[in-house]
Design brief:
The protein is an alpha+beta fold. The chain has one domain: Phosphoribosyl-AMP cyclohydrolase (Ubiquitin-like (UB roll), Roll), CATH 3.10.20.810. The chain contains 2 helices and 6 strands. The chain is globular. The termini are far apart.
């Protein structure tokens, strides 16, 4: 199935960005936007990553999570090699459109590249 490019709107006013229906993401100076990914059923935080415009377009068009790897500097289709595909159930953007929240279903049960369900598997004692 061909991927139809998603058109992002130019950012014109605060009202348009914060209250309007336009998708006008604010990418940082490296062309990236932060993404928080959670399990659509449990709400568990699975990972935090980044997308460039192409990854965001592909995620919207395919309903599968795509990210941009800062360390490898490549587009990354989550699960393409591991089989741990993240099927996007819902994509939300925050109030000033500089952060994406993906609610996903995960094939195979793990999201972390080292095999854990969540990339947040280390507990740090507090207090």
């Amino acid at each position: 199935m061909p991927v139809v490019p998603v058109r992002f709107q130019a950012r014109k006013t605060i009202e348009q960005v914060e209250e309007g229906d336009d998708l006008a993401p604010r990418f940082d100076d490296r062309g990236l936007i932060t993404v928080v990914t959670t399990d659509a059923t449990s709400g568990e935080v699975l990972m935090q990553g980044y997308m460039n415009a192409e990854a965001l377009q592909l995620t919207i068009s395919t309903a599968e999570a795509h990210y941009y790897s800062r360390s490898r500097q490549v587009l990354w289709h989550k699960g393409a090699t591991s089989g741990l595909v993240q099927s996007v159930r819902e994509l939300l953007v925050d109030d000033d459109q500089d952060c994406i929240w993906l609610r996903v279903d995960v094939a195979g049960g793990a999201s972390c590249h080292v095999g854990y369900r969540s990339c947040f598997y280390r507990k740090v004692p507090v207090g």
